[in-house]
Amino acid sequence: MTKDLVFVLNCGSSSLKFSLINCHTDEEVLSGLADSLGSSTAMISYKYQGEKKHISLVPGSQHQVAVDKIVLLLTQLKLTDRVSIIGHRVVHGGELFTESVLIDDKVLAQIEQLSKLAPLHNPANVIGIKAARQAFPELSQVAVFDTAFHQTMPEKAFIYALPYSLYKKHGIRRYGFHGTSHYFITNQCSKMINKPVNELNIISAHLGNGASVAAIKNGNSVDTSMGLTPLEGLVMGTRSGDLDPAISQYMIEQLDYSNKQVNTIFNTQSGLLGISELSNDCRIIEEKAANGHVGAALALDIFCYRLAKYIASFTVPLGRLDALVFTGGIGENSSLIREKVIALLTIFGFQLDQDANIAARFGQHGQITENTGPKALVIPTNEELVIALDAMALVEE
Ligand code: ADP
Questions:
Q1: Residue 236 three-state SS
Q2: Radius of gyration of the CA atoms of the chain, in A
Q3: pTM value?
């Protein structure tokens, strides 16, 4: 039996995305999502050979139960023996991890320690790693960090204007996230515009539920919009992005919110959802805005305005821009948001190609600007493939 598959796990606090990637063909053999874990509606949905199916879970099921069910599914589909390694998406690698690593007890303990920098994310990643270790004790496991790609940022981009000792003693600095996606986009863009990665200057806009922009110079990340945590920067589905840091103090001291409430509001009740008072789903926001919903229209305006401001500012570290790239669920599919953002950037000479913008959706890549000005491209991201290839490379070393 050839061991040609990598099992990729991306564990969130109440969900678990999984896929099996064939490393020789880059094909996604199986993909799925265990959703609403810990709640009464916990269940697994997956896609295999073009068919979508569901597996029900006992209400309240947690990650371990979901992993066990997924392992059973792999056995039933006769795929288990083909799995050679497991790759985990880990959100925060701090300054400890500048590249992917094989997980041993020491690495696992370090990832656990980094939970203090990412309390909403790393604990779930640790649960996923432990569950997978228990289910596949004989297989090697690899951690691929969202922060690693940004470890090339210079100090002027990652140091906050706070007392320097807060960085030195407590690691308070910009780390940046979505690194696997920005890395993948850099490599794909290099192929698309036929320019070597180490000569490539791009701005990569990953716009999903979470959203971030990265400035990439000569193939390396030199600045990014997310910070110590994934809360900073752009307007996101439910996260506020940039705020006056005094707002939290004001809410706590003057308006009697608790620390926890403020944190919950900034992370889960803000962004597109908070402004529109409707939804965090960009499709719904666009539809309602088109029907005259004032809040939805405002949410779109603020989203695009903030994004365009970031893109404009990221020309500063680059000097020369080879391409602006849109990716993530919104970047890959929303021709409206791309059109609005390009319109805000006309000062740089971007000229939208309307037909190309409409064509580059639903998995289609393409250039969406006229050749007269700078290029804007749409490139579908594939974080799972990066995780799989990194994992494979580590076992082959
Ligand atoms: P995640 O960050 O959870 O991986 P995705 O990258 O899948 O998220 O992006 C989810 C976002 O993409 C949602 O806001 C969704 O509404 C948006 N999206 C998906 N398809 C479209 C579309 N056709 N038009 C506009 N937005 C879309």
A1: coil
A2: 21
A3: 0.95
